[in-house]
TrEMBL record, chains A, B:
InterPro entries registered for this protein in UniProt: HTH_LacI (IPR000843), LacI/GalR-like_sensor (IPR046335), Lambda_DNA-bd_dom_sf (IPR010982), Peripla_BP_I (IPR028082)
Keyword Ubl conjugation: no
Keyword GTP-binding attributed: no
Pfam family, one: LacI
Transmembrane segments annotated in the record for this chain: none
Molecular function (Gene Ontology), one example: transcription cis-regulatory region binding
Assigned keywords, A-Z: DNA-binding, Transcription, Transcription regulation
Domain of life of the organism encoding this protein: Bacteria
UniProt xrefs under SMART domains: HTH_LACI (SM00354)
Source organism: Tolypothrix tenuis PCC 7101
Protein's recorded name: Transcriptional regulator HrmR
Residue ranges constituting the HTH lacI-type domain according to the UniProt record: 6-60
SUPFAM superfamilies linked: lambda repressor-like DNA-binding domains (SSF47413), Periplasmic binding protein-like I (SSF53822)
Amino acid sequence: MSKRKISIEDIARKAGVSHTTVSRALRDSPLISPKVREEIKQLAREMGYVPNGIAQSLQTQKTNTIGVVVTSIADPFFAEVVEGIEQIARSSGLSVLLSTSHRNVEQEIAAIDNFYRRRVDGILVADSRINTNHTQQIGQIATPTVFINSQTANQPESFHSVRIDDYLGARLAVQHLVSLGHTSIGYLGVGDRSLSNQLRQEGYQTVLSEANLPQIDDWIAIREEDNTRTSDVVTGQQMLPQLVKAGVTSVFCYNDMVAVGALLACKKLGISVPQDLSLVGFDGIALGGYITPPLTTIRQPMLEIGRVAMQMLLDLLQDKTVENRVLSPYLIERGSTARK
Amino acid sequence: MSKRKISIEDIARKAGVSHTTVSRALRDSPLISPKVREEIKQLAREMGYVPNGIAQSLQTQKTNTIGVVVTSIADPFFAEVVEGIEQIARSSGLSVLLSTSHRNVEQEIAAIDNFYRRRVDGILVADSRINTNHTQQIGQIATPTVFINSQTANQPESFHSVRIDDYLGARLAVQHLVSLGHTSIGYLGVGDRSLSNQLRQEGYQTVLSEANLPQIDDWIAIREEDNTRTSDVVTGQQMLPQLVKAGVTSVFCYNDMVAVGALLACKKLGISVPQDLSLVGFDGIALGGYITPPLTTIRQPMLEIGRVAMQMLLDLLQDKTVENRVLSPYLIERGSTARK
């Protein structure tokens, strides 16, 4: 795998013709006779020559490649979103390259910038932290870009976006608990996904208000943003006990991984789910169906989110007018919730 | 996000100087006076000019980017391997781009070729299907490449590789079951990962031979390769019943996801794990610790695999001599196995 790249010069030397002749022959230029063209192409094949994709794309200005920035490939949520992106991209003959941001705005901007400099045709960014303060850093990105479930309220207006209705999802989750007779309902959130956490917390609080249920400060536990990259499972494990102590009979968790952590904590504390405590997650990742009890959750249509975002990008590439989209999540009732 | 890219020509026109002068000024060429250089760079900044990464990399022949081909980002196994790759890449100032093969050799070759044409500095390929039959298609790839857990026995000799010792891992799994007193031990495998499945099956059979235990054809169930992309969980769910019917008291599963499926099948059939049936997985993904009972498994050092492969690639890039590496997995005893 370490042999030197064959250049046009190498072929020219071997063929005893000029660099220009080889270059023209390989590009099927009519300036070169068909016979010589064939001979040179044959020689190039024998020598193992591969055209330089970068030089080619400089000429055509098209790379037929889409860049996707995700937080991490360890997140099963984005795995399914990317599957949806790939389905649409494949059917349009586009390659997909992925890069990770690890929920860090500097890494995110570096990833976008790297894609831009490699001249991808379009960029998709999941869970973005970019806000109007970063306009200068990314203002020059002239590549069509669509944001998926962005985490900033003050996103630059020029951005296109697809997002899930976090507020609606939270309402569905908490209304489900209310309908089961729960009156002491907690919320276990994460501070490092500021916008979606805020919207889910608002949805939670609105339903409690509408149902005239008590709202107690100690029934809300938010893992504050820090630099330790605490996993969501650990967040759920560490923070569930304080909600139980505060007297809740049910908890709406920010997402399924947090709920998995909460469930592990319950097992350790000898708390039966759903008999002693009901748990609701958010996302609808496959894992939620494998655990015991299987998790009641608010399902985001992950494949659909990826497909819609990719289609929006294709429309932008064809200079069509696009409108930002908000998709609706829905409740999946399983074994982790029960009547109070 | 749709404004036109600013070119060197645009800057030259505005500045009233030649294209060459702008180009030289932006590259800090000493042929241009420091004052003019500064003026042109200032103008370029004001106009929102971004240097073309592709054109730059044509000059330097370096992109400071590594391409990684994985089967799918939905696989938690590769998520952790990629985390290891990124740790080492980041500390060396390299960007990582990912692409997916979906266990299809044509998609794999297309992904490698795409990386090669974009002039990445090095390539890592996980779960490769490439064998000596593909030498012509990828023979021209002159970019240093390292394969991780390749699935072909007749890999081209020029390839560098890091792999887990599948045979040893299988032996550890089955020896664990033998040590618990099991004498009817089944194997639940997958046909689409030919090499590692074969090595794990061999390890299984060798231990049974050594322990003078019965080897029954019906105690081995292999999901044959097909084009339906059946998930490993579904494979475990569908194939566990036939092993139970054949009378096994324990099953060594190809990997953790297959074991999760087997566990779901047991719940449906009213079979208690580990009281009625012991299950062992392979990989050591986080999920295995979240299910009930938590899964006994053979842990692959996933982070380490990624780190070693990336370090090998860095060594290749520095023209150091490298040797292929085989890493050892180890047993993690948890709740899914018990004394017969």
